[in-house]
Structure formats: structure tokens, C-alpha cells
Specification:
Structural class: alpha/beta
Number of strands: 27
Strand order of the largest sheet: 2-6-5-3-4-9-8
CATH class of the largest domain: Alpha Beta
Number of domains: 3
């Protein structure tokens, strides 16, 4: 494809007022993104704001959801109009978020545009998203997303190659080079580079030995981006039987499902592992491949525990056998990894929610592993959380230990104690009601210290504040915390990653030492904390919901 199509400027009658990107980019309904000029306006702001666009290389791809290929076309035509030298994309436009992070770093690109709304549903009636990553491969820092937002508020038009003469015809069918008015569009196999990276991090031959033994595994790609990656990794490289990967073909609407790897939305996988005995290990990843859920036969691994287990067993993976620089977790994540870090003599950082907060620590060499309770774990190999990386890490541990997932967890708790932990999500609450509940609790913080709560006393009640140890930047209002005198915690946050209403997240945690009761059901173990926060925050009355939408 070659084009001498002219650059034209399309005027906007007025700027869009709703293009403020959150920690995971700009997420709106597919219908909103399909409105005239909406996508183009945001891309214009990105191209005007991202450093180095003229003459630079940009990585572009997505999770395959509805609107993915159209957006790649638009970005190519607009990138060419802005003097971009090279756009690297993939066959079918399919590119997982961690693979994109790796590609940005490998190609020394100025950054990337990832087309995904992560675990949100897809299709014409679902959601779409545009996320910007920086040159380090990580999510754009707040300074960049704020500048992009400011730009959207003042736009009076956008530059794009005029359609026709080949300018609207990026072919993603096969690898190859194409040109468009000075822009080279390089289409690559999006899987091979990522697989080569995994070969460097793990002993895949050792994992293959495990899978050849009596150790049946199953992976649910949820018709999202990880299907091609998991098929090549598990079935072709590691020798798992054909059919090990379920729902492995990416679909624009994820097969009508919700590509969120938790017990509610990945219920088919959960039933196979928790109610059946056919499989020894199961896993799932989300829409864009950065989250993971780990299951064993009759055993669900809480994401907070998963980070702690990976830290405690890091030496089994070749990439981490030399030791860890440190670890980090998001504030709502349980303190299970803190206990491991203390015993191993590692520094453990507590950051706000959002992977970008790990970026400075990773770039500065302060940490090697990091994770969030929201099914995200990762390391310094990329600057995003990485679902398949976590799956391989668990398989590496199981290949070395030659035991079950349940035995790994039991051994971990017997050594470090158990953090009973749960997250209750109340989704699609009317925004006014959600903010009313949250603002009321925020206003009560100053008077709660010393008050009785669930048979304990509130030692500290605050709104989490984070001072970045690398650059000194301060992030305020990162979540309401009730820290109790026995080490238990309750945290409340409002989520900004949904597109309908607001989501209230309630995090509950109680520590049980290694000598205590380690086999309780988490909801029972946390029952008094659940009842206490429901009463204090008036959650049922204010949300109109008598139970959470999702319990993790």
C-alpha cells in the first residue's frame, strides 16, 4: 500500500467535554466512540501531546474487540498526517497489553496506543477504550494524561490523510511492510516476540515435563486477546493436548461474555476446577491479557496470596534465581506479601491502585515483582501486569515442587500465616448515590479513631496518601482506610474503570498467624468485618443492593 493522499484538517464545531482518561485510558461505550469525530478527537490530542511523534515509532494494537480495526486505520491515517515515521502493529491488530509493553521497549518506540477496555464487555453494545503507554512501556504518567485531557478541551479540528488513494486500506491480514504518505506500517506476528521473552524468563522445558506427566491443565482465554498466545505457549511449545485452551479465538464481543477472570465471570472455568476433578490446574486472563486468575483442583488462589507465593518461590524461575530487588503491592492488596518480604529481607512498597505507580519503582530498580488484588501481577520484564507470565510462573513453581496448588497454598500459610481477604464490588450504582456514600464516609474519618468496630478498635482512619520515593510526587485521596488495632483492615474505593454508573469496592482483611485457624471460609472469617462496614457506611440502604455484584 502506498499513498500520496493529502493531509486535510477536519474542523470540530466544539471540543468534546468527556475525554478525560483515567488510570487505564479513555473508556466509553462503543456507541460513543462510533460517533462522528469522537475517536479522532482523542487521537489528535494524543498525537499532539505524546513526545517525539514526528519521525518516531509508535506501537499500536488491541484486544480484538469491536472497533479495533477501524481505530487502527484511523491512527495510521492520523499518524501519517502528524509525521509519524513508523507504526508497528500486528496481524489482525491483536496485541496483548504486556506484549505491547515489551514491543515498545524492544523497538525503542516513543510509546504505544492500546485499544482495549480491559475486562469490560465488548461489541456494539459494549465498551471500547484507548490507552496510551509511554516510552518505558508502561501506562502514561498522570502528567501526560492530564496534558492529553487539556488538549481535548481546546481542539477545534484534527489532521488526517484524506481517504482514498490507499490511505484507508491498512491490511492486517499478514505480516509485511506497507507505506502511507511517508509512514511505514509494519505488520508483525504479535505472538512470537512475546514467546521469545518468556523463553528467557522461565525454564519452559521443565514446565513441559510437568505437562507431559499426569498433570492436566486448562486455560480459558474468554474469547479475548490471550487465545493465540496461550495456544502457541501451552499447546505448541509446552506440549499440552489440543483443546487445553478454551475459548481461544478472539471475538469482537468476546462471545457475548464478560472477559473478567474472576469466579463470577469465568464461572465455567471455576466449575471445572472447584466442582470437578478432571484438571489439576486452571487459569484465565482478561480482555487485554494483563490480569490472571489461578485455580487448582478444589482451590481458588486469591490474587493477593498469589503475589506472596510468587515472591516466596521466586528462585525457581531462572530470571529471578539471583534474588529480588524488592516488591510492591497496591494499598488495597492484602499484606500477605509484606510478611514474606520481611522474612526474606526485602523492601516492600505500598502504592496507590494503578500500575503506573509501580513504573517509577521498576525503572529505578527498586523492585522486581509487583501486584494488585485485582488479579494483576508482574515483574520488571515489562511495565505492565502480565497474565500469561503469572500463569507460567505458577506452572514453574508446580514443576519444581511437584505438588498441587492446594498443597502450595497450605505450605505457604503454615510458614507465613494466612491473610483472610475479600473484595466486595457493588457495580453500576447511580453516581449520586455512590458519591454520597463515599463522601459521607470521608467526612467521618476524623472522628473514627478509637471507636469500636467489629469487636475491635479503629486505630487509624484516613484517606491514603502516597509520596513516590523515586520522584517525590504526591498522590492524595487514594482510598478510605480503617486500620484496626489487631491488624485487620477495611478499605473503600470508588472505581473509575467502568462506563455505567459507579462501582464501590470494599476490601476486607484479617490476619491469622501460622499457629491459628488456617482453613476457614474467607467470607465466614471476615463476617464480623463485613457486617460492621455495611452498618457504618450504610451500604445496603445507600446502594439499594442487599449483596455485592461480585465477591472475590
Amino acid at each position: 500500500m502506498s499513498s500520496g493522499a493529502p493531509v486535510i484538517t477536519i474542523p470540530l464545531s466544539s471540543p468534546f467535554q468527556d475525554q478525560k482518561p483515567g488510570t487505564s485510558g479513555l473508556r466509553k461505550s462503543s456507541r460513543r466512540f462510533a460517533e462522528p469525530h469522537y475517536l479522532e478527537s482523542f487521537i489528535e490530542a494524543v498525537l499532539r501531546t505524546l513526545p517525539g511523534v514526528a519521525g518516531g515509532t509508535l506501537v499500536v494494537g488491541g484486544d480484538g474487540r469491536y472497533g479495533n480495526q477501524r481505530a487502527i486505520e484511523v491512527i495510521a491515517r492520523m499518524g501519517a498526517a502528524h509525521g509519524l515515521a513508523r507504526m508497528v502493529t500486528t496481524t489482525g491488530g491483536i496485541l496483548s497489553t504486556p506484549a505491547a509493553s515489551h514491543l515498545i521497549r524492544q523497538r525503542q518506540a516513543i510509546g504505544g496506543i492500546i485499544l482495549s477496555a480491559s475486562h469490560n464487555p465488548g461489541g456494539p453494545e459494549g465498551d471500547f477504550g484507548v490507552k496510551v503507554n509511554g516510552s518505558n512501556g508502561g501506562p502514561a504518567p498522570e502528567s501526560l494524561t492530564s496534558a492529553i485531557h487539556a488538549c481535548t478541551l481546546t481542539l477545534d479540528g484534527y489532521r488526517i490523510l484524506e481517504a482514498g488513494a490507499g490511505a484507508a486500506g491498512v491490511s492486517l491480514a499478514a505480516p509485511g511492510m506497507q507505506t502511507m504518505a511517508g509512514l511505514t506500517v509494519e505488520v508483525i506476528d504479535g505472538v512470537s516476540d512475546y514467546l521469545a521473552l518468556m523463553e528467557k524468563l522461565f525454564d519452559l522445558d521443565r514446565i513441559a515435563e510437568l505437562l507431559r506427566s499426569d498433570f492436566p491443565v486448562v486455560f480459558d482465554a474468554l474469547h479475548a486477546v490471550t487465545g493465540p498466545y496461550a495456544t502457541q505457549l501451552l499447546e505448541q511449545r509446552l506440549g499440552a493436548p489440543a483443546g487445553t485452551v478454551h475459548n481461544g479465538i478472539p471475538l469482537e464481543d468476546f462471545g457475548g461474555g464478560h472477559p473478567d477472570p474472576n469466579l463470577t465471570y469465568a464461572h465455567e472455568l471455576a466449575a471445572l476446577l472447584l466442582d470437578g476433578d478432571r484438571y489439576a490446574f486452571g487459569a484465565a486472563c482478561d480482555g487485554d491479557g494483563d490480569r490472571n486468575m489461578i485455580l487448582g483442583r478444589g482451590c481458588f488462589v486469591n490474587p493477593s496470596d498469589s503475589l506472596a507465593v510468587l515472591t516466596a518461590n521466586a528462585s525457581v524461575a531462572p530470571a529471578y534465581a539471583g534474588g529480588l530487588a524488592g516488591v510492591a503491592r497496591s494499598m488495597p492488596t492484602s499484606a500477605a506479601v509484606d510478611v514474606v518480604a520481611k522474612e526474606l529481607g526485602l523492601t516492600c512498597f505500598e502504592t496507590p491502585t494503578g500500575w503506573k505507580f509501580f513504573g517509577n519503582l521498576l525503572d529505578a530498580g527498586r523492585i522486581t515483582l509487583c501486584g494488585e488484588e485485582s488479579f494483576g501481577t508482574g515483574s520488571d520484564h515489562v511495565r505492565e501486569k502480565d497474565g500469561l507470565w503469572a500463569v507460567l510462573f505458577w506452572l514453574q513453581i508446580l514443576a519444581e515442587r511437584r505438588c498441587s496448588v492446594g498443597e502450595v497454598m497450605a505450605g505457604h500459610w503454615a510458614r507465613f500465616g494466612r491473610h483472610y481477604y475479600s473484595r466486595h464490588d457493588y457495580e453500576a450504582i447511580p453516581s449520586e448515590a455512590a458519591h454520597g456514600l463515599y463522601d459521607r464516609m470521608q467526612g467521618m474519618l476524623a472522628t473514627l479513631s478509637g471507636e469500636a468496630f467489629a469487636g475491635r478498635r479503629i486505630a487509624t482512619a484516613d484517606d491514603f496518601r502516597y509520596a513516590d520515593p523515586v520522584d517525590g510526587s504526591v498522590s492524595e485521596h487514594q482510598g478510605l482506610r480503617l486500620l484496626l488495632d489487631d491488624g485487620s483492615r477495611v478499605v473503600l474505593r470508588l472505581s473509575g474503570t467502568g462506563t455505567q454508573g459507579a462501582t464501590l469496592r470494599v476490601y476486607l482483611e484479617r490476619y491469622e498467624p501460622a499457629s491459628g485457624q488456617l482453613g476457614l471460609d474467607p467470607q465466614a472469617a471476615l463476617g464480623d468485618l463485613i457486617a460492621a462496614i455495611n452498618a457504618l457506611a450504610e451500604i445496603p440502604a445507600r446502594t439499594g443492593m442487599d449483596r455485592p455484584t461480585v465477591i472475590t
